[in-house]
Amino acid sequence: MGRRVGEACARMGVNYNFAPSADVNSNPANPIIGVRSFGSDPQDVAEKASAYIDGLQSAGVLACVKHFPGHGDTDKDSHKELPVINADRQHLESVELYPFEKTLGNGAASVMTAHLDVPALEGGTGRPSSLSSGIVDGILRSRWGFDGIVITDALNMKGVSSNYPSGRAEIEAIKAGNDMLLYSADPETAYREVLRAVKNGDIRQQRIDQSVRRILSAKYRLGILTRRAPQTDTSHLVRDLATVEGSSLCLTIMENAVTLLKNEHFGLPVKDLSSGNPVYVLPLGNGGSSVFTSVAGTYAPVKILPANSTARQVKDMLPDGARLLVSWHEDNPESFTPQAVPKGDAELIDSLSQLPGAAFVMFGNPYCLLQFDGWKKYGSVLLAYQNMWAAQTAAAEAVFGSIAPKGKLPVTLDGEFEKGEGLTFKPIGRLAFGFYPQGGISAGAMCTVDSLLADIPATGSAPGGRLIVARGGRMVIDRSFGTTMYGDSLSRPVTPGTVYDLASVTKVSATLPLIMRLYENGDIKLTEKLGEVLPQYKGSDKQGITLTEILAHNGGLPAGIPFYKYTVDKKTGEPLPEFYSMVRSEEYPFQVGDSLFTCASYPDTVLARIRACSVKPKRYVYSDLDFYLLRSVADKFYPQGIARAVQDEFYVPMGAVSMGYNPLDRMPADSIAPTMRGNSFRKGYVIRGYVHDGGAAIYGGVSGHAGNFSSAYDLAKYGQMLLQKGYYGGHRYLKESTVDRFTRYVYGTKDNSRSLGFVKKQIGAKADNYDAFLSDDAYWHTGWTGTIIVVEPRLDLVYVLLTNRTYEEKTFGLFSENSYRFKILEAIVKSMEQSMEKHRK
């Protein structure tokens, strides 16, 4: 942190920073130090202040440790009056003075003297410490041998100016041993009086020379005396200061700071989401809570309760077993002193504390908690210290277990919670948030990625899309680009919540996990033949195809059958009335477009056509028909159907609530990217929320090969579960051995380089093949609508790119021709590899 602050100061042309505070804030009533202190433990304060100083000065900026001899144990503000420190000498040496001696001994360039009355050091004269030669010269110079710059705190502060007018205060400060005088109340008078004091011998010339030498020495070290006066380039100043590296560091600091004070019955993290019920959040206080609630909403459905609710209203709104997060948000994160907690908030917090599953999260100064006791009654209490975006993000991550709370309480609270306390738990494998530097991705690589993403809508390859990249369990790239449609009044900018038709990614994200579950439960064997699993195929030329061959597309089935073409007029292409109706009915239950429904019997016709089609000799042919058959296999064991089964078994417990078939049953149409302006049997319709694939559409929108929808983030959760060998969010969905079995090569030959469901790196391909940069452990799948999911275990990587390239594609096949899915991935992977190589060296 110190290094980053130093770099920011240097960029602005600031070469001297009056920081850090080395005060030990042991008095909760302290009105002026507060959050500027690192805490109430002298050793902890010394260590953190020293680290800050090292970082700051390594960037070429002088540090100034303050407020000597220690402003932490006061209940008065030296801006307004002279505070008194009534501690004895032994206490001062072991507590207040300790961090200053350590930091100055470790190389701090300067120290700021405070306006304090310290009888144990000054003999009860009432003289401010900043004007005391016994304190400044006696301790800093004589005892500790410090020869850096000593600067006063502002001399216009009432702690000194009430009894020492301008001129007198400055003279006394110089005589005490200060080298620089900060913020004189009357600089002209002060100058005249100091000059007069030097001339009449009240201040020795030698004393002035000593200070000038120290100041010039510091300027020399900074290069001020040997170079031309630096000119700060103000162009791009905000851009240079507001860097992604700075945001990354800020989030890292807050993730390490959040402190778990209580966790009875292991109430945190929130694990079980299987009910599908929302997590209820009641944000209180005057500060904003939008980041906390939005980040929480990426882990689970969230319902925000009105802050003006009564306790009875809150209890009435909660269903049985509901999880409630009560949060209190301070509205001024820069305030030195704790903000007052309104009586109504304190009473409401208290009233809700005994609800089962309730947890309390504090976004504010820990001393705020001393104002009321209700928070102590909660089973789980999390302290986030501030209300800034990074604190809200880190708290939500901790609540849902994507990070472990690592913080330790920096101060003591009422004797019940001692400084240094802080509980933790093991993270449960949910995705955390972050920035591309945390993923080992360079700024140059990100420029390439962003350029390629911008090129997609610019070339008419797709209206827009979403890119998610996760590495090491952290989402490090999150990009929305373009719009959902080209220049249409119904078009919307792509957002994190935009849902896409996954097309053939359905195979591996819906059908495959159910087949994997059946395999590990012993319901099916990969060596079983189709005729053994599905008796209706006995006697057909498909009865001898094994499940392994079906999963690896090696059973000889044709690539596909245009099922919908049998349902339209051969000449006009219009839907035939025996297959379609404009009105839903028992006979026509399956909606395939706005006001268009297909007949209930046609799925049986589809299966009959598959049974009747001819099988060629067994070899690799990528075929949708394989996954029509696998849906039939899954249906045999999941009587509720694969759509409900995959939601109940995987998506809902994972918090992937956008994933699933027939999304219009769960969300409004404008949250879904359309895939085409209807053709064939859906002419004139904008296909939005209905599956793009014609065969899946007339199959009720639920097929084994197509029909699944998802946001990019929810699909990334699924990918992370696979990367973690079947584990996600504290729940094991699949055995490690099952994931290994289904993601390794089946045949491992040039003719068939697939796994049981996934695509893998082509064996025997040329060095410039599109997948050459990936490892043999990687596996992925693409979809016709412009989608892809990639899992690369070697880099601990999950990659998801979703587009709706089929919507009014300007040039057919341009999206695939430009190979955006793999060019973007290649830029990311190569940057990660370069970063790894750099760290190895």
Defining key terms:
six-stranded mixed sheet; 34% helix; alpha/beta; single chain; 841 residues; elongated
Topology:
Layout: H1 2-11, E1 16-17, H2 42-58, E2 62-68, H3 89-96, H4 98-105, E3 110-113, H5 119-122, H6 133-143, E4 149-152, H7 158-161, H8 168-176, H9 187-199, H10 205-221, H11 237-241, H12 244-257, E5 259-263, E6 279-284, H13 290-299, E7 302-304, H14 311-317, E8 324-329, H15 343-351, E9 358-363, E10 380-383, H16 389-399, E11 432-433, H17 443-458, E12 464-471, E13 474-482, E14 499-501, H18 505-520, H19 530-533, H20 547-551, E15 580-581, E16 590-593, E17 596-598, H21 602-612, H22 625-637, H23 642-654, E18 660-661, E19 676-677, E20 686-687, H24 694-697, E21 708-711, H25 712-723, E22 727-728, E23 731-732, H26 736-743, E24 779-783, E25 787-792, E26 797-803, H27 814-817, H28 820-840
Parallel strand pairs: 1-2, 2-3, 3-4, 6-7, 6-8, 8-9, 9-10, 11-13
Antiparallel strand pairs: 5-10, 12-13, 12-26, 14-21, 15-17, 16-17, 18-21, 19-20, 22-23, 24-25, 25-26
Helix pairs in contact: 1-2, 2-4, 8-9, 12-16, 13-16, 17-28, 18-22, 18-23
